[in-house]
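Researcher: Quick one. two chains, 654 residues in total.
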Amino acid sequence: MPPSTPPAARLLNLVIALMNTSGRMTKDEIRSSVAGYDDATSTDAFERMFERDKDALRDMGVPIVAVDTGGHSQDAGYRIDKDAYALAELDLTPAEVGVLSLAAQFWQDTALHVDTARALTKLRSVPGAGDDGTDTIAGLSPRVRPLAGAYEPLLDAITARRVVTFTYRAASTGQVRTRTVEPWRVAVRGGWYLLGHDRDRDAPRSFRLTRVEGTVHPTGPPGAFTPPADVDVDTLIGLATPEPTLHALLAVRPERASALRARATTHPDHADNPVVPGRDVLRVHFTTLSAAVHEIAGYGDAIVVLDPPDLRDAVVTHLTTALHLTPTRSTRG
Amino acid sequence: MAERASERFVRLVGLVSYLETSGPVPVDDLARRFGVTPKQILTDVDTLWISGTPGYWPEDLIDFDADSYDRGIVHLTESRGMTRPLRLGTRETIALVAALRALREVVAAGGDTEQTAVVDSALTKLTAATGEATNALDVRLTVDAAPHVMSAVRTALQNRTRLRIDYVNASDITSTRTVDPIRLLPSDDHTYLHAWCTDAQGERTFRTDRILTATALDDPVAPTTSDRPAPPTYRPQGHTARIVLSSRARRVAEQIPVETTENLPDGDFAITVRVANPTWLRHLLLRHAPDVRSVDPPDLAHDVTTTARRALDAYPDPQGA
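Model:
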């Protein structure tokens, strides 16, 4: 008895058979003649195996075409579109292959690693392409944080233009709701996001993928919408950084808040200010009042706000809330 | 190691199309090219040898020269029509193009026009060959170093020379160090410098936005520097703290390494973090004090409260007085 065919060899035999068939192959012909499919013990098992293989091969770029002759379903067959099969001439230099290898490292910890590893294998199988050029860009090793399972279904839905639904936890309220979205784009900006048109709100929205709970489900037909040509990713995510508009005067303890000092623009002398003795007075720019409050409060007693008064009051209010973290009543108890 | 069938399939067809044009190739060269062991290449050749068109008679099969095989050389004599390299799948193209675009920005930010041109041409060739709309994925790495710092780091990396930096750590303490730079780790949150710190006599990872000044020195780095593997993703050590936050702080919690996240019924949520650095945690809690509901263990809460009290005392005219 011959050993059972490994799945990779079965895929290969299917592709060779479809590449060499004169017209098309019916499922029956595939089941009875292609090495590996004789392992299927029942018609159901064969159907499942063949569907899975067909999807996997299409996923990898093999253009398997269903040929419907108009007769009954037993006549339906499959072939490979040979013109669409091959990679176009790339003519990559060794340096360019090096750059591509480096780009592939990006996804080392993520689901995308599988995709880029395969892409790289294909590019390396192009004769003439350089063997190795990973040193092209000396000492650079880009990386992106890992991602949970939502990526693949989302990207497939984006390319097919299918609507998706998923359960999402809103950051502002913590509320969990089902969202129905026309997916436009996945973006990485210090975290993974989906950008798209929220059908319930009838407006563009961004969704942080770590707040998606459970599975992303495609729903409805392909080609259900047309994404806009230009998507302003940063604005949708709320990252577009405004120009610094807030100029603050801060009294800073010596040797402290160096990161903030690095941005300080002037060091005016305010020796007569009662707060200042022993502190340096710095002028620092911030984008917004709330950004300033958060950053300054983080440094605790290292910084005293001298000006403007609304910033000073906001920092004092902010710090006052921290006093409640220790339950004073119970300790006096 | 279980390899996915899809990966192996892609390598099998890749081997055939490569060998079709390359002529005979030593097993070791193929192994290097396709990033697998020589043993795996031999297993692949064995599989190819019994693959072909239905019937599977000798003339139906992919064939190799047996004498060459015995000498460790792979010589393809029949490819059964599998001569052309397989095109890229949609997701493969998208992942690669997005990575290249992000890489281009990092290289351009380093001010190296020659390398930027290489990335550009790879990108142009790839998009021309695949001809697909590849806007489905958009990645940006954060290059947050000051321009003069970035420039000095790149110079030192290229010339393999030492670097002197003024660095402010998470505890807000500034020090001057001499380091042997190993590599830059641009990532989606920050760009890090992985280096051998000659002062600490150990490998360190520095956030480049915390490097205040950098000077490339003339001294060469230790010869083994570039052989050091990239550090694993940072995982803090230390005892754990449990912090309950209001929902508004969700974004904050997503930026820091948390051990667990637990959603509470009223929209609040609880995280546990490893306290590798108490100063860092105090800074974080002060920064987001209005959204912090509780902190456990209590001494951490006490530490935050005490610091806040001292900070408030420094104001000459406290509110409510």
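DSSP finds ten helices and 14 strands in chain B.
Researcher: Thanks, that's what I needed.
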